[in-house]
Amino acid sequence: MIEGAGLVGVEFGPNVDTYAGASGEGNARKFGTFGYPFRARKPA
Amino acid sequence: MVDQQAVDVGVLRREVQHHYAEVATTPEADFHFHTGRSAAKQVGYDDGLLEGLPEGAVESFAGVANPFHFGVPDAGEKVVDIGSGAGMDSMIAARAVGDAGEVVGIDMTPEMLDRARDAAAERGITNVEFRHGLAESLPVPDGWADLVISNGVLNLVPDKVSAYREIVRVLRPGGRIQIADICVDKPVPEGAKRDIDLWTG
Asked: Would you say B107 and B113 are in contact if contact means Cβ atoms under 8 Å apart?
């Protein structure tokens, strides 16, 4: 989807366990949900 | 492209607004996610990023990772923050771009916009402006931004394709995105896709 919109150079950073210890942790575990930073750029 | 069968867009937007209005007005309440300073530290913000920010902006933080993992914007840059919430990321960006730069935070929840504007005014932060709007129709001119940031928002947007097209529209050629969001490692059943509670939590 990101590249389909015209962005290039997509790069993901390390995941974080966003919901650990929160009441949403159960659903997060069920679907393997983690937070990620990512970057990309619009071609010059 | 919206999966119309999966979810009613109007209902989803109202539920998300209702949910995040509560985060704005009662950030200490029990949500399915962490909020505030502890949440920010849990998802990778170091003390240096958080130091000196208005407490009102930090208390209602509800991001999912750290879009500044790849660095803060450069001095003089123009930044758009999609789903700026209480404004914490916008104010980190505002400090980085300095007086020669500009930050526009965009959110659809009036209570969040009020909180962000109050927090910026409290600290006299004048290079950030908070505007009402949707990710699918950003109130920003074509090619305006050097950098687009967002944190935990695009997963809540029903029409993600339109949202990414808008991001590309507002970026200048060579402009960048630094986004934090959630991803799932396992297939989500159709029933779950229609569950508004799972979209918002």
From this structure: yes
Inter-chain residue contact B201 with A32, CB threshold 8 Å: no
Binary contact (A23, B175; C-beta < 8 A): no
pLDDT at B156 > cutoff 60: yes
Measured CA to CA in angstroms, residue B148 lies from A36, B12, B112, B194 at distances of 16, 24, 19, 29
Q: Do B65 and A5 touch (CB under 8 A)?
A: no
In DSSP terms, which residues pair with B106 in a beta bridge? Answer: B82, B131
pTM: 0.93
> Residue A40 corresponds to which amino acid?
A
Q: How far apart are CA B68 and CA B189, in angstroms?
A: 32
CB pairs < 8 Å spanning A and B: 123
CA distance B48 to B65: 16
Residues of chain A in contact with residue B174, where contact means CB-CB under 8 angstroms, are: 41-44
Output the pLDDT for position B158. Answer: 87
What totals of helices (H) and strands (E) does chain A contain, helices first? Answer: 1, 2
Section A18-39 average pLDDT: 93
Q: What is the interface pTM, i.e. ipTM, of the complex?
A: 0.95
Dihedral, CA of residue B74, residue B80, residue B84 and residue B86, to nearest 10: 50
Cα–Cα distance measured from residue B109 to residue B127, given in angstroms and rounded to the nearest whole number: 21
